[in-house]
Design a protein that fits this description.
By secondary structure, the protein is α/β, with parallel strands linked by helices. Helices cover 33% and strands 17% of the residues. The model has no long low-confidence stretch (mean pLDDT 97). The structure holds glyoxylic acid.
């Protein structure tokens, strides 16, 4: 049997992943290209956002292990083999990276650093009010791995943190008691109304697609900021541009887009109130993630329960 590593990786990335996986799983044979014969041997696919159709024709497949935390693109592939366990990437190093990006955005908003960057363009020397962390109301949408790590980090930093999840699935271990948790669609408008900064870390599902729309943006207080670190399809981009242009939203920090790479002519690139990253808020780090993959592959080999399995019906 063999592992098959595939997905959107350039040559150097693929080789780096192969080497890290091989080091973590010295006993396994790892393939990056398949022929008619090796196709028959693959029982684990290790995938980084693969093109649709990539996992067809693998008769021995027993596990699909994603290197990405979000599996929305995999699940939208109609040819994805059914009934094969699918595991998403859960790596504490990735959660911490996401919490760091969120903290950078929130700190910059609290202290006016995006505004100072604009002022520098105009050679404008003007000191802004200096707000305290405990004066700022920050909300996190999504309380999965990354949402919980981010809410925790922001609470530790002294912000007033509320968090929202689509449904109440019980207490979240380790979440500071100061984080106020809300659940369900009916709770969202009231939460929005008190969110000076809204951070999106939801999984992309049928229930969350387009959630960041004109209605939700209008429910935020005037001058609020939006931070989208989850998926581009959560956001109705034209609704955000209208809200930025009207001044209702004062700043957007965006890591993800409906089309990636973001096309050169897209208005976000040059919008003075958009700060953007090239889908880099939390990358999977091969050094730690290879160990996560290895642990699941060993569990498969030893017939132990697999970890981080996706509920395909739920979508994450
Ligand atoms: C990145 O967006 C991921 O899902 O890992």
């Amino acid at each position: 049997v063999s592992l098959y590593l595939c997905g959107r990786l350039d040559e150097a990335e693929r080789e780096h992943w192969r080497a890290c996986l091989q080091q973590a799983l010295p006993e396994e044979s790892i393939l990056t290209v398949l022929d008619a014969q090796t196709r028959e041997q693959v029982d684990v696919a290790v995938v980084a956002n693969p093109a649709p159709g990539s996992l067809q024709g693998l008769p021995q497949l027993r596990l699909i292990q994603s290197l990405w935390a979000g599996v929305d693109r995999l699940l939208s592939d109609a040819s994805l083999p059914e009934d094969i366990p699918l595991a998403r990437m859960v790596d504490p190093a990735m959660n911490q990276a996401m919490a760091e990006t969120a903290l950078w955005a929130v700190l910059s908003l609290q202290r006016g650093f995006f505004e100072y960057a604009r002022q520098q363009q105009q050679a404008c020397w003007r000191v802004l009010p200096q707000r305290r962390a405990d004066e700022l109301h920050v909300s996190v949408l999504g309380l999965g791995q990354m949402g919980a790590a981010t809410a925790t980090r922001l609470a530790e930093q002294g912000y007033r943190v509320h968090a929202w999840r689509t449904r109440d699935t019980g207490a979240i271990p380790g979440l500071p008691a100061s984080v106020v948790v809300h659940a369900g669609a009916q709770a969202l408008p009231a939460l929005a109304a008190r969110s000076e900064i809204l951070i999106n870390l939801l999984p992309l599902t049928a229930a969350t697609r387009g959630l960041l729309n004109a209605e939700l943006l209008a429910a935020l207080p005037a001058g609020a900021a939006l931070v989208n670190l989850a998926r581009g399809a959560h956001l109705v981009e034209s609704d955000l541009i209208a809200a930025l242009d009207s001044g209702h939203i004062s700043q957007a920090v965006l890591d993800v887009f409906a089309v990636e790479p973001l096309p050169g002519q897209h208005p976000f690139w040059r919008h003075p109130r958009v700060s953007l990253l090239p889908h880099a808020a939390a990358q999977t780090d091969p050094r730690s993630a290879a160990a996560v993959v290895a642990a699941n592959v060993r569990r498969l080999r030893q017939d132990q329960p697999l970890r981080h399995l996706v509920d395909r019906r739920r979508g994450y």
